[in-house]
Amino acid sequence: MGSLPHNEVQYFADRSYRIVSDILESLGVSETEHEIDRDILVEVAEFFLCDIYRIDKQQRGSVSIAKWAGYWAFWVRKLKPISMVNLDDEVEYENISHQDAVHINEIVSLQLALEIVAKYREFDGLEDIVGRHCKKIQNGECDGVSCFWKFAIRYMNFSDEFYSKYLTYSMRNRTFGPHHYALLMENIIFSACTGLEDD
Amino acid sequence: MLEMANQERGDATYKDFGVRTARRKNRSVEPKNGGPTGPKFAKVVGQLTKDGQLHGTVLKRLRRKEPA
Q1: Of A9, A106, A161, B27, which has the maximum CB count within 10 A?
Q2: What is the interface pTM, i.e. ipTM, of the complex?
Q3: Is the residue at A182 inside a domain?
C-alpha cells in the first residue's frame, strides 16, 4: 500500500464518501439513521487502487468497465463503511425495511457498481466490448446508458426483487468476490444490449 | 507475511506479476489513457460526484424520486 500515491487514495476516498452519501439519499436513508466511516473509505480506496494498478499492468492498460466498477464496489461491500445507527429488531426506519438496513452496505455497493458502469459508458472511458460491437451505439441510435438502466431495473425488480435479494444475500452470507462482481456487470451490459448481431 | 518472506528471498510477488509477464512477452507496460487513474477516468469519477448526476436506486420499492 505504501507505493500508492497518497493524493489518489485521498481522492478516491473523498469521492467514495460523496457517492455513497448520494446513493443513501436516493434510498431515503436520512443522515440521522446512518454513519459513514471515512477511515474505512480510505482503506476502500487503498485496496481498490492496489487492485486496479495491478490489473492495469497485467492487461497493459485495457481495463474493462466491469472490472473497474466491480473492484471498487467489491471493497465497499467487503469493508462495509456504512453503519446504521441502530439495528435493533424493533427499530423502524423511515423508508427502508429492517432487512434493507442489515444489508445496507451490499445494497449501496450494488448501486455504486451500476452507477459507475453507466457513467463510464456515457463518457466512453474504458474498454467496452459490447459497446464496440453494438450497431445501435456505433450508429448513434443508442447511448449505451438508457438500455443499461432499463435492463438493470427490470432485472433487479423481477419477481419481487428475486435477483436483487439473491445478490445481496450472497454478498453478505456467501462468497462474492470482485470477479463475481465484474462478471455480473458484464452480463447486465450484454443482456441490456439490443444492437448485437446474432451469431 | 508471505509477501515479506517472498521479498526477502527475492522471489516474485503478486505485485511484480504484471511487470514480469509483460517483460517476458516483450511488451510495454506503459498504461493507456494515463493509467488507471488518469485524466479520462478522473473526469468520469468527477461527474459521478456532481449534483443530480446519479441515477439513483434501481429498486422501485425504494425509489424516492424519478431519476433524472
Answers
A1: A106
A2: 0.86
A3: yes
